[in-house]
Amino acid sequence: MPTPLPDSRISPRFAGLMTFGRYPRLEDTGGPIDWAIYGIPYDTGVTYRPGTRFGPRAIREASQYLKRYSIVHRLDLCDALTMADAGDAPVHPYHPKQTLDAACGFALSLGSDETRTLALGGDHSTAYSNIKAAWTRQGKPSGGLPLLHFDSHLDTVDSVWGEKYGHASPFIRLIEEGVVDPRRMLSVGIKGPLTNGDDLKYAEEHGVAILTHDEWIETGDQPIVDFVRRLEGEAAYCTFDIDCVDPVFAPGTGTPAVGGFTSHEALRLIRAMKGVNLVGADVVEVLPDRDVMGNTALLAAHIAFELLCLDALRRRDG
Questions:
Q1: What is the rounded distance in angstroms from the CA atom of residue 198 to the CA atom of residue 22?
Q2: What is the DSSP string of 206-260?
């Protein structure tokens, strides 16, 4: 079923309720939903600058000018998929694990068993919730889900300030719980100085493939293309931390790392995943207070659009 949208040449994009992409609210849909988009307005897991709790609102606002037809893909996304904005997950700002469990339960409550969820963060700890929900909807496959991870940071630190569920730790927790398969995890865009060399050890010892930004400059997208090809259509998840983009293009984030991808390159990274069987995704770490002219939120909205296009293309092209 297509996604009904207001006609922007009749109903202005700056009018009406603010939902992601002007898609209908979940409660206003009457049939099955391919994708539910929802926010996790939470940032108690940050280790530096807070404010990403306002990220979902900012991304929704920027998405009001997100149009439906992709020139690159020759695809009308709203004709290809049924999508809805499901609102925001409940949060408990003083309680990290309680928030993450509540958000996971919220994601699992959306739509039917076939519905896939795209989460808007929030800090990167919130990826724990949506990845676990996607894994659960897939029947909790033994060994965990394959994961495509775009980020400046590995996020496999055991704990910071005694907290094990902050935004530096989601993937170590998910790997420990069998939700993510580290041997089928590709981290792309890693860069910048580390607290110490031991920050690399967990990923290296558990088989996580790392494509640093400097290595990507040499290889291009081929490692991503090859990774997707090796999955052979198996269900996979994508998590996109906006701080992998250079702060010149995406200044609105709490842990900026210089020398990253351009806006165009960020879209290119997603398009390199064509053919992936995406069963869930998230876009995280947008901090509106530091966002010059809303550039970061606008880019995040377009990254979410490209992620949805991946599923639409797979359905269209088989």
A1: 45
A2: TT-EEEEHHHHHHHTTHHHHHHHHHHTT-EEEEEEEGGGB-TTT----SS--SS-
Strand, helix or coil for residue 27: helix
Using CA atoms of 197, 155, 250, 310 in order, give the dihedral in degrees to the nearest 10: 130
- Kindly report whether the global pTM for this prediction surpasses the value 0.90: yes
Say if CB 40 and CB 56 are below 8 A apart: yes
Q: Measure the CA–CA gap between 253 and 244, rounded to whole angstroms.
A: 10
163-205 pLDDT tens trace: 999 999 999 999 999 999 999 999 999 999 988 888 899 999 9
Q: Which two tokens stand for residue 306?
A: 């490209």
pLDDT of residue 122: 95
List Cβ neighbours of 79 (8 Å cut-off, separation of 6 or more). 2, 3, 68
